[in-house]
Specification:
- Helix content is about 40%, strand content about 15%.
- It is of the alpha+beta class.
- The chain has one domain.
- Helix 1 packs across helix 2 and helix 2 packs across helix 3.
- The longest helix is centred in the middle third of the chain and has 17 residues.
- The chain starts with a strand and ends in an 18-residue tail after the last strand.
Length: about 100
C-alpha cells in the first residue's frame, strides 16, 4: 500500500502498513481488561475473523500472567517505593565557550 505524489524535488512515496496482530492485541490490552472485548477490538483493527483473534488474545494473556511487566523495588523492611528517572536536557550552542 503506497501513495505517490509529485513535489518540486521529485516523486515522494509513503508506505502504509496495517498493524500486526501482536500490535493490535497490545493496543486492545491498553484499552480494556476484558479478553472478549480485546479480541473484538483487535479483530476490528486487523479485519480478521473473531475466532482466530480470540485464540491469540488468550495466548497473550497466558504469557502476560507468567511474565509481569511491572517491576517493584523493595526497600528496607519490604516496603515498596517508587523510582522516578528524569533526564535533564542541556542545550549548548556552538559559540558557547563555558564548560
Amino acid at each position: 500500500m503506497s501513495e505517490d505524489w509529485q513535489t518540486k524535488y521529485g516523486t515522494r512515496r509513503v508506505r502504509r502498513d496495517p498493524p500486526t496482530l501482536e500490535e493490535a492485541i497490545f493496543a486492545a490490552t491498553g484499552i480494556t481488561d476484558d479478553l472478549d472485548s480485546q479480541a473484538e477490538i483487535a479483530a476490528a483493527l486487523m479485519g480478521m475473523p473473531l475466532d482466530v483473534v480470540q485464540a491469540e488474545v488468550k495466548k497473550a494473556a497466558r504469557a502476560a500472567v507468567r511474565s509481569p511487566t511491572t517491576r517493584v523495588i523493595a526497600g528496607e523492611q519490604g516496603a515498596q517505593r517508587s523510582v522516578v528517572v528524569e533526564r535533564r536536557v542541556v542545550r549548548r550552542f556552538g559559540n558557547d565557550k563555558r564548560i
